[in-house]
Amino acid sequence: MNGEDVFDQKFKGFSVLDVVYTHSEWVFNDGSEKMKTEGDMHDKARAIMKSQGFGTHLAWIPVHLSRFENSKSVLELRTKLRSADFKPFYGKHLSIHTGCVYGNNW
Fold it and tell me: Could you report the per-residue pLDDT of 37-48, keeping only the tens digit for each?
């Protein structure tokens, strides 16, 4: 919105798109397995493979695909999600906390 295109810029060797694609591959591989997040180890384990939620969800998929419609790993993740969850996409805290993407793994 401010005229800056950060999607292809590298930050510590990775672009935002690199991180999104890697994250979508991790979620695809983990499926509906419940796991704890790095942010709060006191919080209960949750499965991220759902289209709705408060912090733990995949509601970012249609937002991403509205700009990058040919994102192979994100399209595959959406297909896998839709085989189990038909609810409309809706998520609170969309793109606010990025610990699941930018945690210690980078």
Answer: 666 667 788 888
The residue written with tokens 């990025």 in the block is 98
CA angle 21, 39, 46 (to 5 degrees): 75
Tell me: the pLDDT tens digits for 41-83?
Answer: 677 888 888 998 877 789 889 989 999 999 999 999 999 999 9
SS3 label, residue 3? coil
Indicate the angle between helix axes 16-30 and 72-82, nearest 10 degrees: 30
Compute CA distances 15 → 7, 45, 77, 91, 104, whole Å.
6, 29, 20, 24, 16
CA dist., res. 25 & res. 76, Å (int) = 9
CB 76 within 8 A of CB 39: no
